[in-house]
């Protein structure tokens, strides 16, 4: 019985003992060893350099291709949105997309979990993807009262 009473006391003392930090060498002073796996993280080939040399530039020109490359990962391929690491609103049947100014602003400036894309998409690309989401996923706003988003509208919003 004394063992049961003493156990919490000893455990409590152990928790009060000062913790000692593990001494790890700085990465710049470590010797290079054999690779941990066949996966390499440095020294890309010439072909890889060409593939990634346009980092920050999106080559797609059509709205659907831009949507699939950038937007579908969060807003889902069918535009229904998602909840997980963030909340990504539905684009499907979304009355907020009726006037092009609002989605243009969101694509340019971002909001909440959506990053601003004005630095990686040009005016024509933004107009294309805005028109795509306004005319797909149950939305039929491009032919409506406000018409299609134009690159000039995007330029004015910048």
Q: What's this entry about, in short?
A:
The chain is mainly α and 158 residues long. It has helices spanning 2-16, 46-52, 63-75, 101-109, 123-135, 151-157; strands at 82-83, 87-88. Strand 1 and strand 2 form a beta hairpin.
Structure description:
The protein has 158 residues and is mainly α. It contains 6 helices and 2 strands; from the N terminus they run H-H-H-E-E-H-H-H. It has helices at 2-16, 46-52, 63-75, 101-109, 123-135, 151-157, and strands at residues 82-83, 87-88. Strands 1-2 form a two-stranded antiparallel ribbon. The chain is elongated. The chain starts with a helix and ends with a helix.
Notable traits:
158 residues, mainly alpha, two-stranded antiparallel sheet, 6 helices, 41% helix, elongated
Strand order of the largest sheet: 1-2
Please summarize the sheet with the most strands.
Answer: 2 strands, antiparallel
- Low-confidence runs (pLDDT<50, min 5 residues)? none
Beta-strand portion reads: under 5%
Helix percent band: 40-55%
Number of helices: 6
Instruction: Please tell me how large the radius of gyration is.
Output: 26 Å
| Topology order in helix (H) and strand (E) letters | HHHEEHHH
Q: How many runs of DSSP E, i.e. beta strands?
A: 2
Q: Characterize the overall form.
A: elongated
Average pLDDT figure: 80
User: Would you tell me the structural class of the helices and strands?
Assistant: mainly alpha
Query: How widely separated are the two ends?
Result: 76 Å
């Amino acid at each position: 019985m004394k063992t049961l009473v003493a156990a919490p006391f000893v455990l409590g003392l152990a928790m009060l003992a000062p913790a000692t930090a593990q001494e790890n060498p700085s990465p710049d002073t470590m010797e290079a060893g054999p690779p941990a796996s066949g996966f390499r993280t440095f020294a890309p080939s010439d072909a890889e350099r060409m593939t990634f040399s346009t980092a920050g530039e999106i080559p797609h020109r059509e709205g659907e291709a831009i949507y699939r490359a950038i937007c579908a990962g969060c807003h889902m391929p069918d535009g229904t949105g998602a909840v997980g690491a963030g909340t990504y609103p539905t684009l499907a049947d979304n009355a907020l997309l009726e006037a092009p100014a609002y989605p243009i602003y969101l694509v340019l400036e971002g909001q909440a979990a959506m990053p601003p894309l004005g630095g990686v998409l040009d005016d024509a690309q933004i107009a294309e993807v805005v028109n795509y989401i306004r005319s797909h996923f149950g939305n039929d706003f491009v032919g409506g009262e406000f018409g299609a988003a134009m690159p000039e509208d995007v330029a004015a919003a910048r």
